[in-house]
Amino acid sequence: MESIVKKIKKLKKEKNAIILVHNYQSAPIHQIADYRGDSLGLSIEASTTGAEVIIFCGVDFMAETAKILSPDKKVILPAPDATCPMAEMITPSELKKLKEEHPGVPVVTYVNSTAEVKAESDICCTSANAVKVVKSLGASKVIFTPDRNLASYVEKQVGIEVIKWNGYCYTHERITRQTIMAIKERYPDAVFMAHPECRPEVVDMADYIVSTGGMFDVVAKSSRKTFIVGTEIGMIYPLSKRFPDKEFISAGSRILCKDMKKTTLKKIVSSLEPLEPLIELEPETANRARGALQRMLEIS
Ligand code: 13P
Ligand code: SF4
Questions:
Q1: Which of 27, 83, 229, 257 is most exposed, with the fewest beta carbons within 10 Å of its own?
Q2: 3-state SS assignment for residue 292
Q3: Which architecture does CATH list for 175-254?
Q4: pTM > 0.90
Q5: What is the pLDDT of residues 199-209, one digit of tens each?
């Protein structure tokens, strides 16, 4: 493994590439990261980096977002089949129809969406800034796509009507109230952090409702020792690495996003050598989607 890591570091230098890694990636991938974070942090990094090439270790919507924000850079997804099923749960024509049914209502789209759906939206958001984005609109009603659970969380926090699309993350939906109750019984002093993609009844049990990046901030500010991690199991590794004196309890081994685990060191080497597979987007779609993403970044 050491030699493959060395090879990646050498190739990265030669190609003027930066490696961006989502928090859910597996441990070996974390070790070669130039930057790791949540969707918001990764989008900001992709839009500001001076590197010519972005190697994206995550899923397709994240790499597409990087390409939209940095159209002149080469953006590479080493695992080209790594996708987010939630992003496929709404099509541009379904969103157009929803807009027709609610004329004049602003559309907020979670970044876990296709470039075509972003292009049909007024503004994007991530789990870290969804509440802030919706509040910034000053609207009495918004359309929120595609995640119904993030939409419910936003509705409660902002106190306005949210027209929700019925999308969801299969990984987060596997976390149930019963599972959390059982863990809490075993660890009565534990702090429960939930990702807002969890079911509303699970979110209601949480001490903190935060993005994956927000989980680091909660732990950093807390004097408590044990934390129940209500999100994808991959979060246990970077949290334990950064806070070796704290204890992190996963919501279960089934809380796994198989697409997030498709990136391997081998695939990274194979993509750095020829600089492919490249993310390519239709320019008109990318331009329209960029507006929605930039509006989000302006208020973040
Ligand atoms: P974060 O932006 O909180 O890292 O979430 C991304 C994601 O896909 C959650 O499932
Ligand atoms: Fe998509 Fe869920 Fe995987 Fe995140 S964890 S990438 S929302 S399927």
A1: 27
A2: helix
A3: 3-Layer(aba) Sandwich (3.40)
A4: yes
A5: 999 999 999 99
Q: What does the pLDDT look like over 210-269, one tens digit per residue?
A: 999 999 999 999 999 999 999 999 999 999 999 999 999 999 999 999 999 999 999 999
Domain ranges of the chain: 2-83+260-280, 87-169+288-299, 175-254
Q: What pLDDT is attached to residue 300?
A: 85
Q: Among 114, 172, 175, which is best to mutate for testing ligand 2, by the most ligand atoms less than 8 A from CB?
A: 172
CA of residue 172 to ligand 1 center, whole Å:
10
Q: How far apart are CA 138 and CA 11, in angstroms?
A: 48
From the CB of 127, is ligand 1 less than 6 Å away? yes
Structure tokens at 129: 């800034």
Which tokens sit at 41?
Answer: 């942090």
Residue 213 zone, left/alpha/beta (φ > 0; ψ -120 to 50; rest): alpha
Helix, strand, coil in percent for the chain, rounding step 5: 45, 15, 35
Determine the residue of 147, 169, 199, 211 to mutate for testing ligand 1's pocket, defined as the one with the most ligand atoms within 8 A of the Cβ atom. 211
> Would the CB of 169 count as within 6 Å of ligand 1?
yes
Where does the pLDDT of residue 150 fall: very low under 50, low under 70, confident under 90, or very high at 90 and above?
A: very high
